[in-house]
Amino acid sequence: MIEALAIQLSAIVFFIAALHAYWGLGGVWPADSAEQLAKTVVGRTNIEKMPTPLACFSVAALLAFLAAWPLFCAGLLREPWPRLYTLLADPLIAGGFFGRGIATYKPGWRYHFSEQPFASLDRRVYAPLCLLLGVGYGALMFGIAP
I want to staple 130 with a disulfide (CB 3.0 to 4.6 A). Which of 13, 15, 55, 100 is the partner? Predict the structure, then answer.
């Protein structure tokens, strides 16, 4: 059961990482232009263009690493570090996803990320997905044998 959860979490986060890499290469899906993409996936107030390719690739690399994490937790990949690091980092990763999900519903977040359609998508799609990922990564903690 924990292996199936790990594979699902890994696939979802890897897909998101691949999207960020695609955007770093200049892709604009699911929008029609770079400006519309920025308003859809970044959402900062008055945004007119996407972040730099370096920023997109940096996020993609971080997400790719986080996509591998469930596979380490479930023992499907062997860690190149002591197992204790996996045990200690998993709750931090879960908390990061959970915190991102909660941030959406805070007034300060809404103030800085009010561009449409991001603001609506954030409440309906991005934040619930982050909360779900946080719960999933948190559930991995119960399947890790020290």
Answer: 100
What's the whole-model pTM score? 0.92
> Tokens for 70?
């469930």
In contact, 48 and 38? CB cutoff 8 Å: yes
C-alpha to C-alpha distances, 5 to 29, 59, 63, 103, nearest whole angstrom: 28, 23, 17, 25
Would you state the structure tokens that stand for residue 6, as one six-digit string? 């790990």
In what helix (H) or strand (E) does residue 57 lie, and over which residues does it extend? helix 53-73
Amino acid, res. 9:
L
Which domain covers residue 80, as residue numbers?
A: 2-143
Query: How many residues does this entry show for the chain?
Result: 146
Give the pLDDT confidence of 75-96 residue by residue, as tens digits: 999 999 998 998 889 999 999 9
d(CA 31, CA 17): 17
